[in-house]
């Protein structure tokens, strides 16, 4: 079975006002953090072969994946990042055909770093552009402008990367559908194979929450945001990008295997402060505390790490158990995750995993949402309709 590993780099040059992912600007900790992450990788490799994989897996691709997310993984010195990848590849015998991704920002990526990434084995780049409209970028608090973003893509291609994903945020105040379509046309012209389009979310604890929670009239109206969402998806499909998940579209052969492993309920390992993992029947997390992570991973015994991952210890200074999943929990996670995908719920696969029919377990939720026009049957699948995409969270809640 393929192995999936997520690494969370917690460092950013500056916190974006809309972002609620864990990050810090104390880059003086980078070297100590990556040393701690290398040690955690060693501990993880020493115990993981004795732990069963997740009891559910809808994945059909057997490629290993490694994903460096953040934060801004392109901010630290590339030698730290590449040394950690070397340790991961060695420890887990990651296959030569693995998908190995690093997220980068236009403001912090350089030709030297990109060349180092290629030598270390990274073969996929996810670049956080978010917009090519300089006024929108200013609203989002990004450190780059549109010209820098385009130049960064060209540097990435010059280094030898062909599997490139670009992020866009839609529904930003001042943004228009036509402007976003123009951004997508530019990405298409640059040869970008995968595009992630995320609707702006106002998350508690962010600068945007303080700015807009009492000024919602300054935000794009929900009906306009939904029109933009569908207009963007239609435009991507017209250009040949296949929508395979609520927020992701790609040319054939360029879907994110790593992100698909999440939606397919596969197990995945986690390294780094703020990272989350899923192994056996346990979902676990690293606390949002880079200082605690460095301190603990520098001294943590193999026995304590093993006890935690095997469920005999529920809490450490930098690690905690999020939940222990029952069989019923794992069944409920299938619609929670698979309804995000355009394929939807694979009924035969559900039966193979659990020995019961999905339609018997969730009959009420299925019938209710089919009657509302939010779900549709297609052969042996159940998936969201076009109108159901606008009510995805409500539909999913009916199954929980």
Oligomer: single chain
CATH superfamily of the largest domain: Aldolase class I
What name is given to the CATH topology of the largest domain? Answer: TIM Barrel
Count every beta strand, where a strand is a DSSP E run of 2 or more residues. 15
Poorly predicted regions are none
- Count of distinct structural domains: 2
Helical amount among residues, as a percent range? 40-55%
Mean pLDDT: 94
| Strand content bin | 15-25%
Structural class: alpha/beta
CATH architecture term of the largest domain: Alpha-Beta Barrel
Distance between the termini: 28 Å
What top-tier CATH class of the largest domain fits best? Alpha Beta
The Rg value, from CA coordinates, equals 21 Å
How many helices does DSSP assign?
16
Overall spatial form: globular
Largest sheet: 9 strands, mixed
Provide the spatial order of strands within the biggest beta sheet: 7-8-6-5-4-3-2-1-9
């Amino acid at each position: 079975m393929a192995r999936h590993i997520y690494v969370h780099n917690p460092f950013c040059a500056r916190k974006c006002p809309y972002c609620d992912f864990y990050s810090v600007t104390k880059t003086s900790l980078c070297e100590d953090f990556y040393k701690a992450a290398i040690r955690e990788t060693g501990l993880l490799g020493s115990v993981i072969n004795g732990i069963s994989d997740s009891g559910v897996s809808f994945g059909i691709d057997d490629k290993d994946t490694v994903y460096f997310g953040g934060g801004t993984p392109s901010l630290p010195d590339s030698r730290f990042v590449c040394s950690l990848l070397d340790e991961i590849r060695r420890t887990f015998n990651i296959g030569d055909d693995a998908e190995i991704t690093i997220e980068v920002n236009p403001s912090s990526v350089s030709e030297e770093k990109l060349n180092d990434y290629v030598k270390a084995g990274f073969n996929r780049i996810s670049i956080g552009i978010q917009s090519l409209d300089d006024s929108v970028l200013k609203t989002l608090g990004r450190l780059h402008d549109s010209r820098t973003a385009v130049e960064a893509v060209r540097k990435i291609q010059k280094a030898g990367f062909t599997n490139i994903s670009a992020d866009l945020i839609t529904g930003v105040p001042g943004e228009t559908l036509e402007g976003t379509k123009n951004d997508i046309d530019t990405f298409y012209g640059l040869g970008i194979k995968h595009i992630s389009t995320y609707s702006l979310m106002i998350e508690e604890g962010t600068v945007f929450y303080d700015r807009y929670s009492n000024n919602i009239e300054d935000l794009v109206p929900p009906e306009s945001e939904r029109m933009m969402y569908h207009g963007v998806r239609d435009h991507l499909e017209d250009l040949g990008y296949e929508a395979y998940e609520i927020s992701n579209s790609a040319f054939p052969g360029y879907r994110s295997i790593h992100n698909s492993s999440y939606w397919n309920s596969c197990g995945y390992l986690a390294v780094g402060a703020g990272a989350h993992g899923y192994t056996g029947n346990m979902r676990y997390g690293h606390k949002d505390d880079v200082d605690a992570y460095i301190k603990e991973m520098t001294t943590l015994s193999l026995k304590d790490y093993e006890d935690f991952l095997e469920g005999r210890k529920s809490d450490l200074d930098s690690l905690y158990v999020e939940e222990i999943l029952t069989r019923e929990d794992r069944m409920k996670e299938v619609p929670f995750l698979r309804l995000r995908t355009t394929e939807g719920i694979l009924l035969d696969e559900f039966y193979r995993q659990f020995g019961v029919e999905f339609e018997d377990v969730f009959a009420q939720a299925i019938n209710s949402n089919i009657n509302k026009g939010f779900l549709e049957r297609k052969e042996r699948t159940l998936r969201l309709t076009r109108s159901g995409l606008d009510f995805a969270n409500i539909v999913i809640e009916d199954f929980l």
